[in-house]
Write a structure and sequence with these properties.
With 279 residues, the chain is of the alpha/beta class. It has a domain of 180 residues: TIM Barrel. It is 39% helix and 14% strand. A seven-stranded mixed beta sheet has the order 1-2-3-4-5-6-7. The protein is globular, with a radius of gyration of 18 Å. The two termini are 18 Å apart.
Length: 279
């Protein structure tokens, strides 16, 4: 029998990865937005989650330990959410160390390519903006704006960092099966994040989810900004077909991105297979 769920957001980012708010500021904003259950899912790091757990501030709501892991399937980048993980899991920490090194090397390659275009060396500035080893293109875009190379982060991606541009450096991310196994070893649930954002046909998406299930995956995100009602119906049918749990979240990064504000997504309030029923 289905039961109503609390107000939740199971996908958001802090300054520990590519968000703009400190983990503590993010939690405070979640409380202001009357979020009862929050999962902090920074890209390839659990530093923010650990910071909140150790601060004691998480007592203001139910905090779910989470992470968004970058992996690949058939050569395409896919993001998996790990929810309810043990952030201090040895296997997870080893995995994250390897991914951080990949990101460091990728950041160096991107800035090297930009230097060949007669742009200034932005690596150290981007690393300082990142504040951690989880250096990504958004940090390089911010460094480009700060240095006056471009007028906005959008321009940075349009001219230099977006798909097919000079700064579009591919990394050899871990395979999907490896990533699912790491989440499982960390006692968490692995879910495919925002599945309609990978520019796949639904036929290809079904293949991805078929392989994901075989690998031991647990669920899919079906409620998030930008998903249409028709897409959501398809995702819910797939979830039922494969007996997958479902989840939802805003993918919050910054207060300036109002379309991905905390709690701003089509919430699933009554469903027995929601991941919240298992956390």
């Amino acid at each position: 029998m289905s039961r109503p769920l609390p107000r939740y957001d199971l996908h958001c980012h802090s300054s520990a990865s590519d968000g703009t708010l400190l983990p503590e500021e993010l939690l405070e904003r979640a409380v202001e937005k009357e979020i009862d259950v929050l999962a902090l899912t920074d890209h390839d790091t659990v530093a923010g989650v650990l910071s909140l757990q150790r601060s004691g501030l998480s007592k203001q709501l139910k905090l779910i330990s989470g992470v968004e892991l970058t992996c690949q399937w058939e050569g395409r980048v896919v993001h998996l959410l790990g929810l309810g993980i043990d952030p201090e899991s040895v296997s997870l920490q080893e995995y994250l160390t390897g991914v951080r090194q990949l990101r460091v090397e990728r950041g160096q390659k991107i800035t090297q390519r930009l230097r060949k275009l007669q742009l200034p060396d932005l690596h150290d500035q981007a690393r300082d903006i990142a504040g951690s080893d989880v250096l990504g293109r958004p940090h390089i875009a911010k460094a480009m704006v700060a240095s006056g190379v471009v007028g906005s982060e959008q321009e940075a991606f349009k001219r230099y960092l977006g798909a097919g541009k000079s700064g579009d450096v591919k990394a050899v991310w871990p395979e999907l099966e490896t990533t699912v196994a790491v989440v499982t070893e960390a006692k968490g649930f692995a879910l495919v994040a925002h599945p309609t954002k990978y520019k796949m046909t639904f036929s290809k998406l079904r293949r991805l989810l078929h392989d994901f299930v075989i690998a031991g995956g647990h669920g899919i995100e079906v409620a998030y900004p930008g998903v249409t009602s028709e897409q959501q119906k398809h995702l819910l049918r797939i979830a039922e077909q494969y007996d997958l749990m479902v989840s939802g979240g805003s993918d919050f990064h910054s207060p300036s991105y109002t379309w991905t504000e905390l709690g701003r997504f089509p919430q699933l309030m009554n469903t027995d297979n929601h991941v919240l029923c298992h956390l």
